[in-house]
């Protein structure tokens, strides 16, 4: 078969596999993902991209890395993985001059406590491989990275910029596909920096990449000739948006519930994955709905990001409960 014969790869994000050994569990998410995984396994696809948030609370339960690893290993095709914030911690909240705790929306957590660490990123990588990567397959370049490291000052941030800056020098290919978890921006690259201490801007801050990193990232993706950019994290699908020649694909989740969906009349709140058909001319991306769109059932424990000291593992319905790290 020539390298330019049509072929298929898949993309999925936010499968959030959880466990009843946790202080919180949503069996509906596991059930929705189980159906999607079965559909993916039956696809004639040559590889799968996972755009992050493999786990419910991988950031504090190493057990969930092991569980997600074994779950993905059961698929018949190679899987290329980047982390999400529930796996390794959030993008950093910079709070210069703000000493007191604030909580504009009554969320119950303090964002700087959720900042990702180098240690957790390394632990994730020990299960799933490097968090930033690029490779070519059949004349298509695939580049995956955890853009939320931007602004952390961690070694993983240096590695991100070095990789992105090298992309234009790498052998040229027919198409370039990138995967990054967070949305690069809510609506447009030149929108302002969002203020996490303001209740009306918190969600925008939480879901997107901050300036000036956003603009630097965007410029590098343009220089690298990226044509398709997958981002999840919000769990809500939106129509593809073409910006500067890049198709921004904000994809629905493979199990976890849509957020902010009330903002957009055309938001897609279904669970599913993307089937991507590659030809010499283009890549056609099609959403495939999961066969089990079950409603929430049997949920226990809090949502959001409860502080470790407030978690009650005695509610776990399977023994022994996990121990937070
Ligand atoms: Fe998620
Ligand atoms: Fe996320």
Could you explain how this protein is built, in words?
- With 325 residues, this protein is of the alpha/beta class.
- The chain has one domain (7-93, 104-315): Purple Acid Phosphatase, chain A, domain 2, CATH 3.60.21.
- The protein is 22% helix and 16% strand.
- It has helices at residues 27-41, 62-73, 85-88, 118-128, 155-166, 202-207, 213-223, and strands spanning 7-12, 48-50, 79-81, 133-137, 140-144, 175-179, 228-231, 241-243, 246-250, 272-278, 283-289.
- A 6-stranded mixed β-sheet has the order 4-5-6-7-9-8, with no helix packed on it.
- Strand 1 (7-12), helix 1 (27-41) and strand 2 (48-50) form a beta-alpha-beta unit.
- The chain is globular, with a radius of gyration of 19 Å.
- The protein starts with 6 loop residues before the first strand and ends in a 36-residue tail after the last strand.
- The structure holds fe (ii) ion (2 copies).
Keyphrases for this structure?
22% helix; Purple Acid Phosphatase, chain A, domain 2; 325 residues; 5-stranded mixed β-sheet; 6-stranded mixed β-sheet; 7 helices
Structure, briefly:
With 325 residues, the chain is of the alpha/beta class.
Number of helices: 7
Q: What is the H/E string?
A: EHEHEHHEEHEHHEEEEE
> Which runs of at least 5 residues are low in confidence (pLDDT < 50)?
none
How many domains, in number, for the residues?
1
**Strand order within the widest sheet?**
4-5-6-7-9-8
Structural class: alpha/beta
Write the layout of secondary structure elements.
Layout lengths: L6 E6 L14 H15 L6 E3 L11 H12 L5 E3 L3 H4 L29 H11 L4 E5 L2 E5 L10 H12 L8 E5 L22 H6 L5 H11 L4 E4 L9 E3 L2 E5 L21 E7 L4 E7 L36
Parallel strand pairs: 1-2, 2-3, 5-6, 6-7, 7-9
Antiparallel strand pairs: 1-10, 4-5, 8-9, 10-11
Helix pairs in contact: 2-4
Bound molecules: fe (ii) ion (2 copies).
One fe (ii) ion binds next to loops.
């Amino acid at each position: 078969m020539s390298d330019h014969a049509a072929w298929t790869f898949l993309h999925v994000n936010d499968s959030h596999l959880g466990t009843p050994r946790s202080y919180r569990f949503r069996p509906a998410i596991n059930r929705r993902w189980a159906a999607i995984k079965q559909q993916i396994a039956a696809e004639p696809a040559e590889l799968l991209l996972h755009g992050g948030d493999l786990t419910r609370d991988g950031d504090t339960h190493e057990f969930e890395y092991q569980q997600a690893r074994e779950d993905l290993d059961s698929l018949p095709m190679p899987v290329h993985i980047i982390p999400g914030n529930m796996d390794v911690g959030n993008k950093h909240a910079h709070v210069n001059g703000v000493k007191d705790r604030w909580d504009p929306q009554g969320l119950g957590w303090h964002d700087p406590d959720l900042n990702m660490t180098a240690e957790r990123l390394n632990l994730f990588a020990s299960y799933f491989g490097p968090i930033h990567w690029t490779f070519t397959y059949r004349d298509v370049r695939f580049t995956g990275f955890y853009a939320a490291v931007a602004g952390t000052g961690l070694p993983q941030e240096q590695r991100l910029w070095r990789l992105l800056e090298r992309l234009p020098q790498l052998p040229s290919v027919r198409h370039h596909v990138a995967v990054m978890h967070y949305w690069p921006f809510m609506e447009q690259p030149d929108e302002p920096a969002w203020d996490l201490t303001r209740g009306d801007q918190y969600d925008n801050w939480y879901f997107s990449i901050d300036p000036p990193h956003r603009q630097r990232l965007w410029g590098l993706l343009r220089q690298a000739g990226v044509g398709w950019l997958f981002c999840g994290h919000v769990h809500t699908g939106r129509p593809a948006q073409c910006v500067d020649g890049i198709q921004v694909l904000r994809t629905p989740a493979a199990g976890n519930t849509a957020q902010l969906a009330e903002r957009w009349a055309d938001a897609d709140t279904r669970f599913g994955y993307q089937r991507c058909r590659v030809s010499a001319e283009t890549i056609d991306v099609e959403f495939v709905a999961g066969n089990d769109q079950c409603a929430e059932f049997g949920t226990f424990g809090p949502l959001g990001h409860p502080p470790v000291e407030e978690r009650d593992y005695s509610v776990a319905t399977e023994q022994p409960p996990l121990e937070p790290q």
